[in-house]
Amino acid sequence: MGLGGCILMIAVGGILTFATDWDANGLNVHLVGLILMAVGVIGMAAYVSVYKRRRVIAPSQAPMVEDPDHRHHHTY
């Protein structure tokens, strides 16, 4: 599941928890919304931690300094 899926789960969970007043026999819609939000937040944290691990930062190299004796001279 990508970052978009996690955000979608959080959004749907928030809608079910805070914006609905549905009553279903044997199903607590508000609890389902809270569970979806929690899973979305956990998924987002897992995605970000894996993304940070995959990103490799190359070691810095010494800056290249041009040798003044070996400049390119154009003759026209």
Description:
It is a single chain. The protein is mainly alpha-helical and 76 residues long. Helix content is 55%, strand content 0%. It has helices at 3-18, 29-54. The chain is rod-shaped and about 90 Å long.
Topology readout:
Elements: H1 3-18, H2 29-54
Helix pairs in contact: 1-2
Summarize the structure.
This protein is an all-alpha fold and 76 residues long.
Key structural traits:
76 residues
SS field, number of helical segments: 2
Radius of gyration: 27 Å
Describe the largest sheet. none
Task: Please give the share of residues in helix.
Answer: 55-70%
- What proportion of the residues form beta strands (DSSP E)? under 5%
Let me know the number of strands: 0
Q: Give me the oligomer status.
A: single chain
List low-confidence stretches. none
Question: Structural class of the secondary elements?
Answer: mainly alpha
- In N-to-C order, the SSE pattern is HH
Distance between the termini: 62 Å
Mean pLDDT: 82
Q: What general outline do the C-alpha atoms trace?
A: rod-shaped
